[in-house]
Write a sequence for this structure.
């Protein structure tokens, strides 16, 4: 297609990261928002959302010339609302060049950045364009360009192929990160635990230029700069992150032989990203601080794929200064983060989030099995749900796992059952009923008895068919 000249005030279709083409208008950026270096780009305000972004010129198309084409490939409700907003704008404009005003969201106050892979403009037949992810809304986005990079594999799980990547900065209500390119901290980073989540996190830390020393219990996952023990990693690094499976593993890592505590000296920083209970994280914080160390809990909401994509949600609590020191690391591994106050708050919030997710997964499995035994099409049920208010990437992916009989772990079933158990205990501690979580927990326990522990959480489906 011949190059099209664009200018200030033009209506366009803008392609941002993994999101579908979206209608917007080229406008002047805020005075304090610098233009990214590199290829020519324009600042675009998107219709039907509260979003703004720098978009490279090759990711822009004139609105009117491509309207019919875009409407054919995107049928989402929010997309249609955006198109309606454009048409309403055109009616109001009546041929005059007016600025598009989008009201500020009361939730958008601070700023946080996270990596997002660049997408090709044209969708393939096997990958139809879907409606925008809900996280596309209520954030100020500023796309910047990153050079192509390639790193030798730490492990098969940590392998990063050479590709052109993009970075998207996202505003979150309580973040202190700086908008624009991720500038890696000059602090030495340590990371303990290279499981489903840890491997992706380390990959993205390296990809964004951080210096990382890793340690893992199993030798086949060794790589990056290798520390022989947790104590050695902590003693040689400024900030050490850890991501392990459960409260016992988290305690053993800190308090065990050659553990973290033996490497803690005044000023050393420890960030526990494991999903554990508040009592465990409080105990770990106390022993770390007693040795002069600094402590932050930062469990993450997401799965293996989101970890690999650098799109985790980070819930942090504890040392606020350490939270700010971790800014570039959190930008590399996640799309946004929340600071929740004193130690223990993040653990509680994370358990509540996973309680909701685990209960929802059990309900999905229950619905699919009920459809089957009553002679209804499971695929049709999924199609109906995907067109309704429950539509989500999570729903679609987990249903597809079940329909295809593919339970390769993205989030281990045994870990979601652990989180449900801890969430129920949290409710018990404050005398608050958790009957839905308790019921879901029993179904997961049944699935574990059927040897589904090391499968994906969607394998809870098998508890209903045996």
């Amino acid at each position: 297609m011949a190059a099209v000249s664009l200018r200030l005030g033009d209506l366009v279709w803008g392609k941002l990261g993994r999101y579908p083409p979206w209608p917007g208008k080229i406008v002047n950026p805020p005075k304090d928002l610098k233009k990214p270096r590199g290829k020519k780009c324009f600042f675009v305000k998107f219709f039907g959302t509260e979003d703004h972004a720098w978009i490279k010129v090759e990711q822009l198309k004139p609105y009117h010339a491509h309207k019919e084409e875009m409407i054919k490939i995107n049928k989402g409700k929010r997309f249609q609302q955006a198109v309606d907003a454009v048409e309403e704008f055109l009616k109001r404009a009546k041929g005059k060049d007016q600025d598009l005003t989008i009201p500020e969201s009361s939730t958008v106050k601070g700023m946080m950045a996270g990596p997002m892979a660049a997408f090709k403009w044209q969708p393939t037949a096997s990958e139809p364009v879907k409606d925008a992810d809900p996280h596309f809304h209520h954030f100020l986005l500023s796309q910047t360009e990153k050079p192509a990079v390639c790193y030798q594999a730490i492990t098969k799980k940590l392998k990063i192929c050479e590709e052109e990547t993009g970075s998207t900065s996202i505003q979150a209500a309580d973040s202190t990160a700086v908008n624009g390119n991720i500038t890696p901290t000059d602090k030495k980073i340590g990371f303990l635990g290279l499981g489903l989540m840890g491997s992706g996190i380390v990959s993205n830390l390296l990809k964004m230029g951080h210096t990382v020393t890793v340690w893992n219990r199993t030798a086949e996952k060794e790589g990056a700069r290798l520390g022989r023990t947790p104590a050695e990693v902590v003693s040689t690094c400024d900030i050490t992150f850890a991501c392990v499976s459960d409260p016992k593993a988290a305690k053993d890592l800190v308090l065990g032989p050659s553990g973290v505590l033996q490497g803690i000296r005044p000023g050393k920083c420890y960030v526990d990203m494991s999903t554990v209970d508040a009592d465990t994280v409080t105990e770990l914080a106390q022993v770390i601080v007693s040795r002069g160390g600094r402590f932050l809990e930062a469990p993450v909401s997401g799965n293996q794929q989101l970890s690999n994509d650098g799109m985790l949600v980070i819930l942090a609590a504890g040392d606020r200064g350490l939270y700010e020191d971790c800014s570039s690391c959190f930008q590399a591994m996640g799309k946004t983060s929340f600071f929740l106050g004193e130690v223990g708050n993040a653990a509680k919030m994370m358990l509540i989030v996973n309680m909701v997710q685990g209960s929802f997964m059990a309900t999905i499995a229950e619905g699919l099995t009920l459809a089957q035994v009553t002679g209804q099409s499971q695929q049709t049920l999924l199609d109906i749900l995907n067109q309704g208010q429950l539509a989500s990437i999570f729903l679609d992916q987990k249903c597809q796992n079940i329909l295809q009989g593919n339970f390769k772990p993205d989030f281990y079933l045994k870990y979601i059952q652990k989180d449900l158990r801890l969430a129920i205990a949290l409710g018990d501690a404050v005398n608050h009923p958790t009957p839905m979580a308790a019921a879901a927990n029993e179904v997961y326990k049944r699935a574990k008895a059927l040897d589904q522990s090391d499968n994906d959480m969607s394998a809870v489906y098998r508890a209903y068919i045996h």
Notes: The first strand starts at residue 11 and ends at 14. The longest helix spans residues 345-373. The chain is about 35% helix and 20% strand. Residues 97-180, 219-223 have pLDDT under 50 and may be disordered.
